[in-house]
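Sat 14:20. Reprocessing the chain from the morning session after the first attempt stalled halfway. Input below, unchanged.
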Amino acid sequence: MSVQRDTWVKPPFIANPVLRWAVYLGVIGYFGWVSLTMPIDWARVAAGIERAGRIFSGAFPPSFERSSLLIDGFVESLKIAILATAGGVLLSIPIAFMAARNVVPLPVFYIGRAIIIIARSFHPVIVAILFVKAVGFGPFAGVLTLIVYSVGFVAKMLAERIEEIDFGQVEALRAAGAPYLSTLFYAIFPQIMPRQIGLTIYQLDSNLRASAVIGIVGAGGIGSTLANAFGRYDYDFALAITIVIVAVILISEAVSGVIRKRIQ
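Finished this time. Tokens:
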């Protein structure tokens, strides 16, 4: 007589079958409605495919003849990323403390969270357009843009780390009569320092990538060089810039990954 073995069956995502199928049909109906109502001009799509063919045929082989222009653009992007990371991280530390519920009063917590939410509300390209209009074209607008971008990310992650610390050390120092700043330096900073270093390295890598994007709207760096190449129909030079961007991002990703592993 064979014994039937019990097997585990993964439970459905939604236990109620009526509700589950209603959700499935709703999702299918929504995507169908979006697909049917999206305005697509198929004549323009066909013309776009033809233009894309001309761009790719003009891009090969890539041209590295103006390497000095390419290097200047990358050096400028690197300067933008380093300055923005330094400024953004320095500003993020006090904002992160303001946004950590366990170390500040409630009104200060709301102010800190509001600053982070505002900094994270807009894409760097939109912020770059605002700063380009305010301070003009060039790398200074890029630095200001990436400082805002860095504050939005680093302050949020650091505030969450502060809220997760072992609060016993803080209470011990407070019981010994230590002032507020001494509590921060000797009980909180040692616990968040590894996260702070890791976030700084990650943000430098992220700012280097973002500097190539915001340069397209006039905020300096290699993005401006790329936009000018497309504007002059120098597709072979544009492909060379794109190849170098990918290579630099791969190298920076590998280097930052090694550093993060070593400090963990």
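The mean pLDDT is 84.
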